[in-house]
Amino acid sequence: MNKQRTEPTTAGVLKIRASLSRILRTPNSALLLLVVLGVEAGLGLLVIGDLLTAYGQVRQIYAGSMQGLRRIGELQYDAQETRRSTLYALTTEDGNLQVEYADQSREADHRVSEGIAKYLVQARRPRDIEVGKRLANDWSAYLRVRDDVLGLILESSLKEAVHVDLTSGVSLFDRVRRDLEEVNRLYDEQASQQLILVTDTSRRSVLKLIGGFAFALLFGSAAVWAIQRNKMHSEMQLARLQMDFVASVSHELRTPIAAILCAGENVKDGFARAREDLVEQGSIIVDQAEQLAELVDQVLLFAATTAKPRYALGPVQVSEIIAMALRNTAALLEKSGFTVEQQTQQGLPQALGDLSAISRCLQNLIVNAVKYDAGKHRIGVAAKLADSVTHRKEIRISVQDSGPGISSSDLPRIFEPFYRSPRVVAAQIHGTGLGLSIAKSIIEAVGGRLSVVSEAGVGSTFTVHLPVAEEDRHAGAVRSTANLEDLQREGEYTLVDHEQP
User: Fold this and answer.
1) DSSP 482
2) Are 321 and 358 in contact (CB under 8 A)?
3) Separation CA 369–CA 403 (nearest Å)
4) What Cα–Cα distance (Å) separates residue 169 from each residue in 82, 140, 146, 165, 181?
5) Angle at alpha carbon of residue 447, lines to 442 and 448, rounded to 5°
6) Rounded to an integer, what distance in angstroms lies between the CA atom of residue 234 and that of residue 243?
7) Helix count and strand count (H, E) for the chain
8) In what order do the strands lie in the sheet with 459-467?
9) What pLDDT, in 10s, does the model give residues 110-136?
10) Per-residue pLDDT tens for 301-331?
11) pLDDT in the model for residue 462
12) Distance between alpha carbon 369 and the CA centroid of its chain, in Å?
């Protein structure tokens, strides 16, 4: 019989290890990975933004340079056309051609004047404005001489026209040409400066890219280290739990086995021959065997609850839950001499859950109340309707003991698997530290939660919070725990809540 019980226990421990390991390491690892991906995505967007900015600046510089060069080229061409048409008029004696060349010269100088005006409007730097104004003044001076030359040509005074052009026109046009070359040089200088700025921007983008990848590498390495460290911590915590479990179970197994062996040897060796002695030794064997069976059942039940059991949820009478729990613990209560004080609110609605599962949870709480009693041999069981944290109605079933209470340092850990308070261990109170963990897992599996209020020297009150079965939605229908996640997403039934007095 012992061998048959040991194999399921080993399987249960393996399930416990897999479940606890998954629970302990998954959330932090996922969060770290999300943070790493977020940081790398942010750096990538930053670098891409810088590259797009640099590309836009290059396009703007290219477009501005092309427009500026084309504008200066047109100005130079039209200025040369103005000068060339004037020279053509000076070299011909045909009156019609002289008039035609004069008109061509005036058309060209009109385009040059418009181009200079546009240049002055678009000029921003002081040097550009200065050169533009000088070009406008020199061009106006040349046009005055040019107009005098054309007037003399049309009056048939070619010699005088040539003299005026040579003495004044040539030098003024040279000044215009130099001004145009200066404007062209300023365009090149401006384009070079802008190209330097773009080069600096590109260099900064490259440095940001390198820095971003280096930071991402370091951050990713740190995240991987943190994940591995968290995993190692989880494994160490699991190993400690397993060691505590082995130590606790070993102690719990050794005591009843030793008692059973001792009683059996007494009967075998003939020390118990009278009927009273045989009954006494048989009672010892039965009691210790029941303790062993209870221990194995606790381990198997814990293994089952860690595998996320599914219950058929439906309307349940609160009175039936309490009655079943008290019925299943009646022998223990009677043997231990406990009295149970019940306080059930009249007219309670039905709770939503599974009768057997909730009763089992309540049974564990009653057994704990008996185990940790401080000698008063009294347990209080109460049920009432109250508002939940989301101001919706819920059923609350409480089990109040008369024990020594739970210290503030132990309170946050009492629902952990295999955890036993150092004070309890020192008092040599038998147990595995699975009772409250099983109760918590069961009640959460049916859509409820478990809370505790404890005061040192007074006792503890464990409360089961259950949703109310809404008749218009759930009457006559059985609900699967597959919908439990929907209930939890609504925020009404949260995880374990440790309430301080």
Assistant:
1) G
2) yes
3) 7
4) 12, 12, 7, 4, 18
5) 75
6) 14
7) 13, 9
8) 339-344, 378-387, 393-400, 459-467, 449-455, 497-498
9) 998 888 888 888 888 888 888 888 988
10) 565 555 566 777 889 999 999 999 898 888 8
11) 93
12) 41
